[in-house]
Amino acid sequence: MAKPVVFVDGASGTTGLRIRERLGARDDLELFALPDDRRKDPAARRDALHSCDAAILCLPDDAAREAAALAGDSRAVLIDTSTAHRTAPGWTYGFAELEGGARRDAVRASRRIANPGCHASGFVALVEPLVRSGLLRLDALGGGGALSCFSLTGYTGGGKKMIAQYEASRDERDPLLAAPRLYGLSQAHKHLPEMVAQCSLSAPPAFCPVVADFPCGMEVLVPLPASALRGGADAVAAVYRETYGDGPVVRFAGGAGESEGGFLSAAAMAGCDSMEISLHGGESGRLVAVARFDNLGKGASGAAIQNLNLALGFPETAGLVLR
Predict the structure, then answer these.
(1) Is the confidence at residue 263, as pLDDT, over 70?
(2) Is 106 helix (H, G, I), strand (E, B) or coil?
(3) What is the pTM of this model?
């Protein structure tokens, strides 16, 4: 039987490079990318999108929309890692663990899969199970605005330009890069629409993303207002345990942090494709839920490969680096 052909469209960015690295080590599929002199040729891309079994789009939003149009009615599985299709009709939001794992079947059946955003992956992983179970009362959130989210990320999520800024020699780079930097100040971050849609919110959370001087890793925190919960820490932990347990990719770790002396490093999952969910507080009456993962792992490339595996019938964790 012929191996499935996987076309990586736009393989030169950070997400595409890691996908190629992961898939290139496998012998159960054939990896394909256009040569540099043809990678922007619409005819060559159209042929590739119609002749492959699956295509992973590692492109800016407009180029991803163009690729989807070029694919047209192709039966190839398209997995878009951009923002372009995350709330678009006809596209499956590719976070397999959502809906208590029921989303996994939707991904398997889909030919058009939108890879989640990195920040959004952590927020949705923490909030969707609580909303779906009814434990988090949306009617007590003032239209959704009472939720907030703090997310700390490594600089590789900012692409080649940001990587070059952070990795320049110390005497050439801006000294302000030595400290964490808050961004998304307009409260119009591109991940907010999917956060709202996947968690059934009527308004986006107050979102505070921060980039810091480390390459890979992500830590997303969501405070859980006691006034909006139908239960305390044990009830929240029970929902996370039922949803994720000790899953192959996403797992519930209870109150992680003991092994780090009471700290939670945003780099704990760097280099791997796992996500760790933890819950903190309770004794004080205040709860904070935390998701830790790699911004290029479950936050990008790892999620794309997980979705590819499901859509093509491979074992879900094939080619992933898990912890």
Answers:
(1) yes
(2) helix
(3) 0.95
**Between helices 14-24 and 159-167, what is the axis angle to 10°?**
100
The verdict on whether 52 is a catalytic residue reads no
Q: How confident is the model over 196-201, as a mean pLDDT?
A: 94
Answer yes or no: is pLDDT of 144 > 60: no
Q: Measure the CA dihedral 36/26/319/77, to 10°.
A: 60
Q: To the nearest 10°, report the CA torsion of 267, 272, 276, 280.
A: -10
pLDDT at position 145 is 56
Domains and CATH numbers, the chain: 5-117+299-312 (3.40.50.720), 118-295 (3.30.360.10)
SS3 of residue 39 by DSSP: coil
Q: Is 260 exposed, middle or buried (0-12, 13-18, 19+ CB in 10 A)?
A: exposed
Q: Encode pLDDT of 264-300 as tens digits.
A: 999 999 999 999 999 998 776 789 999 999 999 999 9
Q: What is the pLDDT of residues 112-141, one digit of tens each?
A: 999 999 999 999 999 999 999 999 998 887
Distance of CA 285 to the CA centre of its chain: 30
For residue 24, give Cα distances in angstroms to 18, 29, 116: 10, 9, 23
3-state secondary structure of 300: helix
181 by DSSP, 3-state: which? strand
- Signed CA dihedral, 38, 312, 82, 17: sign only: negative
Closest Cα to residue 30, out of 38, 40, 20, 15? 20
74: exposed, middle or buried (C-beta count within 10 Å: 0-12, 13-18, 19+)?
Answer: middle
Catalytic residue among 52, 58, 118, 149: 118
The Cα–Cα gap between 4 and 50 comes to: 13
Q: At what angle do helices 42-51 and 61-71 cross, to 10 degrees?
A: 60
Place of tokens 């330009």: 161
Mean pLDDT of 95-99: 95
Q: What is the mean pLDDT of the chain?
A: 93
Contact criterion met (CB below 8 Å) for 25 and 49: no
